[in-house]
UniProtKB/TrEMBL annotation:
Cited CDD domains: SDR_c
Pfam families in the record: adh_short_C2
InterPro entries in UniProt: NAD(P)-bd_dom_sf (IPR036291), Sc_DH/Rdtase_CS (IPR020904), SDR (IPR050259), SDR_fam (IPR002347)
Keywords, in A-Z order: Oxidoreductase
Family in the record: Belongs to the short-chain dehydrogenases/reductases (SDR) family.
Top-level division of the source organism's lineage: Bacteria
A GO MF term: 3-oxoacyl-[acyl-carrier-protein] reductase (NADPH) activity
Enzyme Commission code(s) on record: 1.1.1.100
Protein name: 3-oxoacyl-[acyl-carrier-protein] reductase FabG
PROSITE patterns in the record: ADH_SHORT
GO biological process, one term: monocarboxylic acid metabolic process
Amino acid sequence: MSVDLALRDRTVLVTGGSGGVGRELVRAFAAEGAKVAFTYHSDRQTAEDLEREGDGRVLAVPHRMGENGGVHDVVRSVNRWAGPVQVLVNNALFQPAAPALDIGELDAVPWREVLRLNVETAVEFSSAALGQMRETGWGRIVQVSSSLVSQGKKGFEFYGAAKAALHGFNRSLAFSAGDADILCNVVVLGLTRTETNVTKPWFPDYRDEFVALSPQGRLVEAADVATMVVVLGSAANQVVNGQDVHVSGGAVVR
C-alpha cells in the first residue's frame, strides 16, 4: 500500500523555520512538493540559504515574536506569494537560558515574556490561518511542544507552563475546527539533537538521561520530528485530531 501525502502545491507556513528543527520541517515539506513559507528572527543568512535551497518553493519571512501586527503581516506575505495557508506548524519559541535561580526571584527572569510570547504567538498564527482554512474547507495545524510539560526540569518552569497552555488550547481548537476537515494536533518533543541544543551547558547531562530512558538508546534527530509533523500535516492524516503525539524514542511514554 502506498501512502499519498497530497502535499504538492499546498501552502505551508512554518514558524521558527531557521532553527535546527525548523529547517528540517521546511525541507521535509518542500521535498513533498509543498510551497513552504517560514518565519525567522535574527539568523538572516541561514534563512536566505534555506530559501535558495528551496529553488523557488520556499519563502523566508522575517518576524519578531510579539510585534504588533506582525502575525497578520506574515500571513499577508504568504498569501501574496502562494495563496491561503493550508498547513500551519507553530514551531517558533522563546526560551531564555535556564536560570540558576530560585523560583521566588521572579524579578530576575523574563517570565511574563516567556508566557506571553510562546502562547500568544501560536494562538495568533492559529487564528489567522484558521479563517483561511475554513474558506478552503481543509487544513492541518500542528503545535510543537515539549516533554517539559509532563516531566519538568529546574529552570524551565515558565517555558513548561507556556507549552502546557498550548495543549489545552489545541484540544478545544480541534473541536472547533474539525467540522471543516481541519485537524489540530500537538507534537511533543523530548530532547532533540540540534545544532543549538548541543551547545547548551545542560546538554551532556540531559542527553545521557534521555538516552538511558530510551528503549532505542539514542536521541531523536530533527529529521525524525519533521517526518511525524509532515504526516500529521498532510492529507494522509484523516482522523488523528486533538492529540498529543510524543516524538521521544520512547524516553517519554504516555
